[in-house]
Amino acid sequence: MPEHDHLSRQEWDVVVVGGGNAALCAAIEAAEAGCRVLILEGAPAPYRGGNSRHTRNFRCMHQGPLSVLTDSYGEDEYFDDLMLVTKGETDEELARLAIRSSEDCLPWMEAHGVRFQPSLSGTLSLSRTNAFFLGGGKALVNAYYNTAADLGVSVAYEAQVTHVEVNDGRFEAVQAEIAGAPCRIRGRSVILASGGFQADIDWLARAWGPSARNFLIRGTPYNRGVVLNDMLEQGAESVGDPTQCHAVAIDGRAPKFDGGIVTRLDCVPFSIVVNREAERFYDEGEDVWPKRYAIWGRLVAAQPDQVAYSIIDSKSIDLFMPSVFKPDQADTIEELAEKLELPPDRLTETVTRFNAACGEGTFYPTELDALATQGITPAKTNWARPISEPPFYGYVLRPGVTFTYLGLKVDSTARVSGAQGRYDNVWAAGEIMAGSILGQGYLAGFGMTIGTVFGRIAGQEAAAHVN
Fold this sequence. Notes:
Layout: H1 2-9, E1 11-12, E2 14-17, H2 21-32, E3 37-40, E4 57-59, H3 75-86, H4 92-111, E5 116-117, E6 130-133, H5 136-150, E7 154-156, E8 159-167, E9 170-178, E10 181-187, E11 190-192, H6 201-208, E12 216-217, H7 226-233, E13 238-239, E14 245-251, E15 272-274, H8 289-292, H9 296-301, E16 308-313, E17 328-330, H10 333-340, H11 344-357, E18 392-404, E19 407-408, E20 415-418, E21 421-428, H12 446-466
Parallel strand pairs: 1-10, 2-3, 2-11, 3-7, 11-21, 12-18
Antiparallel strand pairs: 4-6, 5-6, 8-9, 9-10, 13-19, 14-18, 15-16, 16-18, 17-18, 20-21
Helix pairs in contact: 2-5, 2-12, 3-4, 4-12, 10-11
């Protein structure tokens, strides 16, 4: 196979394992520094880009209006937002590095072909903190591949790396299968940007228990953690918890893999959420959705059969971004319960009890309004309005895993740490090392921040090593 021979015959300056945002940022930086770069993307070309294909935005620090971002979003506020969702489970040095560097990244992204648009209505007040990609993540990925091609970066698709050869702390080659044919590719440095292990259901089940087999994987089916596992087996230091992940509540009718952003449901703050027994189990109005959507996957995962149901009435149905699937609809709560296969008497009782607990106040859908329930557990602390105006709507919720947080430990230069200290010429970026910063929880747009910042650092550092 000629392409495979051509790749094996030469020694590359920088081999990049992975083909998503972090990998592309690394490849572009290394190529701009004059390196001969090869990207090994495990997916076929139409599915290139990993989870980056499904992203929408980038969370960015800025001192004043910047591109499409309004007002300002300073380092300390950004860090406080991160501490809130991670409950302090973060490496502060790396977190602040990602936050501070994000401000320079946005103009760099624009200079490399990424276009931004003002945030859409229904995305819950992100115009100050998050820059939205025009055309979504797929447009960003395509822009970066075009830029990489212009810089002479080589790309191999369907290139599944099976082993990273590291001897005495030094990378020598990767073993891979390209379109099913085995080959060995030598390089002077390697950047590992191949994502988490969420598409390996057996690994998820070992970490979480058998309930994980009911999870849906909203991200790419190609992130099976092969490179991560290979490095850990060779003594690379790990960071993060295998049971922590970016898991959101998604539409229960979504496909097993690759449903992406369109399967996410943003209705929770304006609904009540019940389990299979038609009982509420958590405060649906705890905080604005961008800070809280990522806890709901875990909450639903803890319910019987890993399923829950969001119940809404007609006054709230237009307050959130619609899902790709229409909700079940009925004129009475009893009829809705039957459609959702919930016990009708129990759901009616839960709704009646909730409605009776709703107090007086002014409803503000886009900000915390302290419109709270009184005298029921769990309380709903914001946006608590009676579910009383037919027709009534229901969505089935299941946990949708985006990426896992177990990863490789890196320093502030993105270099990977091993049992004997730092590897000489091995760097990592993106989801494969994000667990350093995301110990738990998630902040909208922050995965792209980590990938962009550490991808760029890894590319610069690998190039400096080679040169």
